[in-house]
Amino acid sequence: MTLTFLFLILSGIVINVMSALFGIGGGVLLVPILRTLFPQMPIQMIAATSLTIVMSTSLINLILLRYQKIHIDLKSLLFWSIGMIFGVQLGFELSFLLAEQYIIAVFVFTLLILALRTFFSRHQEKINSDESAGKDRYQGMFFCSLGGFVAGITGIGGGSILAPLVNQLKSVKREQVAVYTNAMMFLGGIGNLFGYIIRPLPPEYQQIEMWHIGYINLTIVGIVVLASLLMSPISMQLRGKINAKWSNLLLGWILLAIGCYMVILQFMK
């Protein structure tokens, strides 16, 4: 149990750094980590616990990012959040109808596509005109609906999907990506979180030494979020230390490695 505790603390630290640097919420890491540490957990419980942690770390990062005074288009954020909320709710309901292997397949396929998209993405000149922002609102709304849908099924959190996609929008600068995605991860997860809370957890999945509320494991959430909170000041200082080219390359390799690991983990069961 001590080793598991240490792994959860390390997870909170790494998740916070990834969220600050790349704008991804950490669910992409949490799902395989929790699946490794707690193989007896149903995939829906892993998704619920992951989502709760992602929302908490996103809120922490949003509060800290506010002090960096990064301007964002609130109208675009509203459009994209509505799209994500719709997608998340649809994915959430579907997650209880799909077999576990199909949920894992969606998770892995999404990561591999995003990794390839990140590797082959080209630098785009960013445009701040009102016309460009208007077009991006509808394209971004579609992206966020898709990201929310996959997040609702798998518990990835949405940021891993949204960060590469939002970064393709011409009206969004690199430093704005983390602000947009962290805000959407928090707003988009609220309805999904409520759904996991009101669903009773089957007795066979309840662990005596841990606290639960619905499908959410509060013990795991508390450990990871506390570690993430303590790491936040350092993560904010790391922002901007990696240039755009190396940041995209690193993100692509991270997504590819996690996708391959989940395939190996599934075959080892």
Topology:
Blueprint: H1 2-22, H2 27-37, H3 43-66, H4 74-95, H5 100-119, H6 130-154, H7 159-166, H8 174-198, E1 212-213, E2 216-217, H9 218-238, H10 244-268
Antiparallel strand pairs: 1-2
How would you describe this protein?
With 269 residues, the protein is mostly helical. 75% of the residues lie in helices and 1% in strands. The protein contains ten helices and two strands, in the order ααααααααββαα. It has helices at residues 2-22, 27-37, 43-66, 74-95, 100-119, 130-154, 159-166, 174-198, 218-238, 244-268, and strands spanning 212-213, 216-217. A two-stranded antiparallel sheet has the order 1-2. A hairpin with a 2-residue loop joins strand 1 (212-213) and strand 2 (216-217). The model has no long low-confidence stretch (mean pLDDT 77).
What is the rounded Rg?
17 Å
Order of helices and strands: HHHHHHHHEEHH
> Can you count the helices?
10
Specify the overall morphology.
Answer: globular
Taking all residues together, what is the mean pLDDT?
A: 77
Class from secondary-structure proportions: mainly alpha
Helix content: over 70%
Give unreliable regions as ranges.
none
